[in-house]
Amino acid sequence: VIIPEEEILDNASHISDALGRGRSMDSIPSTFTNGSCSPNSLDPDISPDEQEEKARLIAQVLELQNTLDDLSQRVDSVKEENLKLRSENQVLSQYIENLMSASSVFQSTSPNTKKK
């Protein structure tokens, strides 16, 4: 049995959406399970080993999708933190610059006064 790629992607999208809403894999009918809700009722022409392999691959795809989603969220949070830290660095740099310009220790001395 060959499943068109568009159908696989469409089913993966529906599965991902349903899982995002808290539904379990068992409650999602799909082409992978011939429209049934049970992975045990796969196409009778497919051997139990093939059924097991399909179920394993589906679980692996879902796990990878979840991992990708987690990584994407992590990247977004790191970007936000980066922007926050850059802003704080700018404030601190300006503060240090203002302190240095206000302090006589950091002012340049004039070369007109010479010691004899």
From TrEMBL:
Tell me the Pfam families matching this sequence.
DUF2205 (PF10224)
Q: Which residues cross the membrane?
A: none
UniProt keyword Metal-binding, yes or no:
no
Any one GO cellular component localisation term in the record: cytosol
Q: Where is the composition biased (Polar residues)?
A: 27-41
Coiled-coil ranges (or none): 54-88
Note down the stretches annotated as region Disordered: 18-51
Report the membrane topology from the UniProt record: Peripheral membrane protein
> What keywords would UniProt list here?
Coiled coil, Cytoplasm, Golgi apparatus, Membrane
- Annotated compartments: Cytoplasm, Cytosol; Golgi apparatus membrane; Golgi apparatus, trans-Golgi network
Q: Which family does it belong to?
A: Belongs to the SCOC family.
Q: What does this protein do?
A: Positive regulator of amino acid starvation-induced autophagy.
Name under which the protein is recorded: Short coiled-coil protein-like protein
Organism from which the protein derives: Camponotus floridanus
